[in-house]
Amino acid sequence: MPYEWSASTDPGGTVRRLHLWPHRSLPRRGFAAFILATFTLITIPLYPLLGTIVLWGLLPFLLLAVAGVWWGLEQSYRDARLNEDLTIDAEQIRLTRTDPRGATQEWECESYWARATMHETGGPVPHYVTLSGKGREVEIGAFLSEDERKALYGELSDALRRAAQPQGG
Question: In DSSP terms, which residues pair with 109 in a beta bridge?
Fold first, then answer.
């Protein structure tokens, strides 16, 4: 799953942290192999044209196609730099979202008032998960798959419920 829970114990209680990131199905090593394979396969039709003027007419278009594939995959890697960090403790919840360009957005709320909601329809994606509290509603994990959002909702609801319980009881 492209999210991970961690817990740390501090003097005031337990702090739970959730780190979410978009799924990356193609590692960098696979990226290089894919570009090489694409280049190799796309040049096969050029071999009979070696030594002819037609080669020079087709070559720029084939190289442009490889460059387009490379650019598209690189853009996917840039977009995948998005991440979200949620910190839950007994008093406060803080969500920090860092977009691919490095800009951050933050939301915080008292743990007791925070609620997780799953919108099965009506959101930008099915089973859209939001956090609400302090008069605002913010999305969390919209880039996850539908099954991952469903699992996240259950885990997030449990973590919020535990955080809202009075300490020592």
Answer: 93
**Could you give the CA distance from residue 146 to residue 66 in angstroms, rounded to a whole number?**
32
106 plus 132 within the same structural domain: yes
SS3 content of the chain, % helix, strand, coil (to 5): 40, 30, 30
Element (H, E) at 38: helix 28-43
User: Which DSSP string corresponds to 115-130?
Assistant: EEEEESSSSSSTTEEE
**pLDDT, tens only, 93-106:** 999 999 988 899 99
Does some domain include residue 169? no
Rounded distance, CA 132 to CA 73, Å?
35
Q: Specify the pLDDT at position 167.
A: 64
Return the structure tokens found at 146. 């539908």
State whether residue 117 is helix, strand or coil.
strand
Range of the domain at 108: 3-24+85-164
Same domain, 90 and 13: yes
At residue 80, what are phi and psi to the nearest 5 degrees?
A: -80, 0
| Overall pTM surpassing 0.85 (yes/no) | no
Asked if 32 and 12 sit in the same domain, the reply is no
